[in-house]
Design a protein that fits this description.
The chain has two domains: about 325 residues, no CATH class; about 200 residues, Serum Albumin, Chain A, Domain 1 (Orthogonal Bundle), CATH 1.10.246. The protein is of the alpha+beta class and about 575 residues long. The strands form four sheets. Strands 1-20-3-11-12-4-5-8 form an eight-stranded antiparallel beta sheet. Helix 12 crosses helix 14 and helix 12 packs across helix 17. It has 19 helices and 20 strands. The radius of gyration is 22 Å and the shape is globular. It binds glycine. Glycine binds next to loops.
Length: about 575
């Protein structure tokens, strides 16, 4: 592990951020939780968390730090950090007001319902994931500029400059990152005719420096021209040229018309705590509130963490929430999503009326097959709290690891493959095995349904928890389980994040468990109840911050990844 070298490099690279009264930055170098008095950033990448902290120390607020962190993730964690993808941001300011910025990608205007099907109506394998057609119109740059212009304190130049420096001067690769780039090498080579910063003559090794000159030039254009530096001018020209080269359909109009949307957050309460999360076009917020509402009437505190009763109840709630996802959830701009009805407490109690405490309730029978278990970083989540109590919870993604692996020639950024989040053929599972219905079919300009679930929890009207996760369809179940671990089982945040997780999504009819984290007796009992269990390496990678009664912040950086908490 090369953390010392990385830290050294960070100090050099971001020394441009002159701090008026320097305070020591605390880093979770040993991967255990940290406690900080003032501000905290928890993200999937150490350098990006440090960029955020430096912005806080420079006098920026949580929104400045979030925007800076997200641009840094686009440079130092291109597996999922991005400017060619999209995301959702939940903001809660210290006066108790909250806001959601939806910067989810959109289908290009030339997209059509059957664009990923062959003449016989079958899905053309790989078309919605590994080609130029797989990309939705990127939303991240507009989303970050919107967040900054509404809430930021520092200049935009201040928040983006550290990322320009990291792209231009390079950053040191961790062992895991070197492996990520090497294992994706053949895709980068096959899908890019030009040179990319991600491929060199030999394989990457831990400790080598990755420099991204083209990306730094793109970031400079965004710094100098704002959204026009991305959605028009040279960057747009390069993106459209890339599309033309790969038979993509994104147009000048798609780019110029893209606008992120301010949405009213979804709210509900759970045992006296207020939950603030995202509405559609993410399904994640509704699913989270449904799961909490479905388990609330049951005495899970008495049953205990990971008892058979608790797992059985939570799995049955997950089954029902994901069945609703398939039937009722899609882009609110192309359909009516009955959000209030779906999270209504009476509805949720009724939804559990056929819950049998002794055995699994089978999902509807289906005839389709299921794809291979997909294991990757996918999406990424980061959480920020500043010294004044402003909080930001953001999940952002290219969809698959490195998106579609296509780098926009001479612009240096990766494109998303978010079109696969539509039901490319209603009834056929996507890369997460999610089966969608007509409500999530492709239409020009429509947003594909997401599972991203950035959330904020209040206790007695005060900020209590900032939480979220990557993991495709496992995002809402991971966030749900961490919240319940803290609120019901009284775990510390670190314990709650590290605790074993499980996942059920209605179809396929399987309960996923993390490897080596269920004992054989529990396995046998659940099998006897009618569950089919399947092991996977990990579920979710939560990055969370909790506030203690004295205002101190504690971190929950998931040990499942290279997640890094920094505070001061
Ligand atoms: N692409 C993962 C999600 O939005 O749920």
């Amino acid at each position: 592990m090369n953390r010392c070298i990385s830290l050294f490099l960070v100090i050099i690279l971001i020394s441009a951020c002159t701090v008026k009264s320097p305070k020591q930055v605390i880093v979770n170098a040993e991967k255990s939780g940290i406690t900080a008095d003032s501000g905290m950033v928890v993200s999937a990448n150490l350098l990006s968390s440090l960029v955020g902290i430096k912005i806080l120390q420079k006098g920026g607020n949580a929104i400045d730090a979030a925007v800076a962190t997200e641009f840094a993730l686009a440079v130092c964690f291109p597996e999922a950090g991005n400017i060619g993808g999209g995301g959702f941001m939940v903001i809660r300011t210290n006066d108790g007001k909250s806001d959601v910025i939806d910067y989810r990608e959109k289908a290009p205007l030339l997209a059509s319902r059957n664009m990923f099907l062959d003449k016989s109506g079958n899905v053309k394998v790989g078309l919605s994931t590994g080609t130029h057609l797989a990309s939705g119109v990127p939303g991240t740059v507009d989303g970050l500029i919107t967040a900054h212009s509404r809430y930021g304190k520092l200049s935009f130049k201040d928040v983006i400059q550290p990322s320009i420096d990291l792209a231009e001067n390079g950053f040191i690769l961790t062992r895991e990152q070197a492996e990520d780039f090497n294992s994706n090498r053949s895709k980068f080579v096959a899908r890019n005719s030009g040179k990319t910063a991600f491929v060199k003559d030999s394989l990457w090794k831990e400790g080598e420096i990755m420099i991204q000159k083209d990306l730094s030039e793109t970031l400079k254009r965004i710094r100098d021209y704002g959204r026009d530096g991305f959605y028009s001018g040279r960057t747009a020209h390069l993106l459209l040229r890339e599309m033309k080269k790969g038979n993509g359909i994104m147009s000048e109009r798609d780019l110029s018309e893209y606008k992120s949307v301010l949405r009213v957050p979804l709210y509900s309460d759970y045992k006296g705590y207020k939950i603030i999360t995202v509405p559609p076009p993410s399904s994640g917020g509704i699913i989270l509130l449904q799961l909490l509402g479905m388990v609330e009437p049951f005495p899970i505190r008495e049953w205990g963490f990971n008892s058979i009763q608790t797992i059985h109840l939570m799995v049955e709630a997950e089954r029902r929430a994901f069945a609703d996802r398939s039937e009722f959830m899609g882009d609110p701009e192309s359909m009516i999503v009955t959000v209030n009805q779906l999270v209504n407490k009476k509805y949720l109690i009724n939804r559990m009326s056929n819950y049998n405490k002794n055995e699994a309730t089978p999902s509807s029978q289906t005839t389709h097959g299921y794809p291979e278990q997909h294991e990757s970083e996918e999406t990424t989540h980061y959480s920020v709290v500043d010294s004044k109590g402003n909080a930001v919870s953001v999940t952002t993604t290219l969809n698959d690891t490195f998106g579609n692996s296509i780098v926009v020639d001479s612009a240096g950024f990766l494109l998303n493959n978010q079109m696969d989040d539509f039901s490319v053929k209603p009834g056929v599972p996507n890369m997460y095995g999610l089966v969608g219905g007509d409500v999530n079919s492709i239409q020009p300009g429509k947003k594909m349904l997401s599972s991203m679930t950035p959330a904020i929890v209040e206790k007695d009207g005060k900020l209590f928890l900032v939480v979220g996760s990557p993991g495709g369809s496992t995002i809402p179940t991971s966030v749900f389980q961490v919240i319940v671990n803290v609120l019901d089982f009284g775990m510390s945040l670190e314990e709650a994040v590290d605790a074993a997780r499980f996942h059920h999504q209605w179809l396929p009819e399987l309960v996923y468990f993390e490897k080596n984290r269920i004992d054989s007796l529990a396995y046998q009992k659940l099998t006897n109840m009618g569950y089919e269990l399947k092991v996977r390496s990990s579920i979710g990678r939560v990055n969370a911050i909790m506030l203690l009664p004295d205002g101190k912040k504690v971190s929950g950086a998931d040990k499942r990844g290279n997640n890094s908490a920094c505070g001061y």
